[in-house]
Amino acid sequence: MTTLRARQKNDRRKRIVAEAKTLFRRDGYDKTTIENIAEAAGVSGVTVHNYYGTKAGVLLALVIENDALLIDKLEKSLPRDANDIVELTLHFARGVMDHAIAHLDKQIWRQVIAAVTVEANSRLSKAYFQLDHQLAYVLVQRLEGMQKAGRLPVDVDVEHLGKALFHLQNARFIQFISSDDRTEDEIETRLRNDLTALLSAGGRRT
Amino acid sequence: MTTLRARQKNDRRKRIVAEAKTLFRRDGYDKTTIENIAEAAGVSGVTVHNYYGTKAGVLLALVIENDALLIDKLEKSLPRDANDIVELTLHFARGVMDHAIAHLDKQIWRQVIAAVTVEANSRLSKAYFQLDHQLAYVLVQRLEGMQKAGRLPVDVDVEHLGKALFHLQNARFIQFISSDDRTEDEIETRLRNDLTALLSAGGRRT
DNA sequence: CAAAATTTTTTATTGAATAAAATTTTTCGC
DNA sequence: GCGAAAAATTTTATTCAATAAAAAATTTTG
């Protein structure tokens, strides 16, 4: 049995997040005030604070919703028969960037990254990192597939490899959003350079 | 000829940054107010704003000062005769973490990362990224040395490799400061795992 | 239906950030 | 050196995020 109280709370949460997304997209993060969001959602400003702690908290909540979709999307779109690590990772990186830009602009993504860093121990940040982890695992799974198909040396630890690739991709993603005029192509090139350099540096296989 | 005005301005800058460092370290970032800093430095709060824009701006200014020292330190301490990439990078990472912790605590470093992300286009953030770039180049130089000494395949692009290694190290550094109880050893292990996985995944050299 | 429990709203305060006006200090030509 | 002009700081005022405590409203439960 869901009590009335629980349902109302849920409704308010939904309204707050939905209205926040609309306002953030329309007016930008800075120009949207907590009061604006509260008014649009039909609650008081303090209630927004009670629910999400900070303005960035509201932002994180909506990003987390969207990112859950990204995982599904990547799980479907990431090729299972990739020939090499580079192409796999670049495909992954494209998926992440496309998805990000489709939902929020760079200025707002910078706020997201800042928020999960400063409030790294908050409930919402942990949820965010949890999703990052799942995202990295999509990559790990594909690498396992490649290893089984003999396209990757058997002595490679695919879990470590997947996480490393994810980190690299993430670093470049942050670079992508950190400047308004850095293009996806530019970032793709850099990531490709990272990967080819690293992979070619291993050398001397027996 | 340095005018009196220029000298006074310089003095004020120095006082603000020095007092801010003392206060941030003693009371923490959040509990230190701009007014506290201003009072300690003998100026008005608005002057601090005029000089550095934001509280985070003051923090960045002092971090930039310290990071210049880090570059010198690493340039000296990073071994020129490293046998492999892994040991070189781990040494580098240690240097960065040790230096960071020696100057400010993790909570404050989180503010630094957040600040350079949100205000990615500000003067101070650009200066910060510039130092990051120089830092990465210390690594690049060592790699060049290794390549010349025949400890690295000649077809490896050391500039790309150095930047990639730096990014990876940086990602792990951010992870290091993101939780108060993550140790340097723990991070070293993770970075080692990243590197060995990536380097072993390259394979099939002719 | 009424008391108890829960939640939201109201009210108030602190501090960052920003802008404009007022004041002080330095500079520079004479 | 003096005084006007220029430059910088301080004062004053405002908006908004964040937080806390008290008050009010609503739901739950016996």
List the helices and strands and how they pair.
Two copies of one chain form a homodimer.
Chain A: H1 4-27, H2 34-41, H3 45-52, H4 55-77, H5 85-103, H6 106-118, H7 123-148, H8 158-178, H9 184-202
Chain A binds a DNA duplex (30 and 30 nucleotides) through residues 3-5, 8-9, 12, 33-35, 43-47, 49-50, 53-55.
What is the strand tally of chain A? 0
CATH-defined superfamily of the largest domain in chain A: Tetracycline Repressor, domain 2
Residues in helices of chain A, as a percent range: over 70%
Radius of gyration of chain A: 20 Å
- What structural category do the secondary elements of chain A indicate? mainly alpha
Chain pair sharing the greatest interface: A-B, 43 and 43 residues
Low-confidence stretches of chain A: none
* Main sheet specs of chain A: none
Total DSSP helices of chain A: 9
The residue-averaged pLDDT of chain A reads 94
Kindly identify the CATH topology of the largest domain in chain A. Answer: Tetracycline Repressor, domain 2
CATH architecture of the largest domain in chain A: Orthogonal Bundle
Quaternary status: homodimer
The overall number of domains of chain A is: 2
Protein name (chains A, B): Transcriptional regulator, TetR family
Organism (chains A, B): Tropicimonas isoalkanivorans
GO molecular function, one term (chains A, B): transcription cis-regulatory region binding
InterPro entries (chains A, B): Homeodomain-like_sf, HTH-type_TetR-like_transc_reg, HTH_TetR
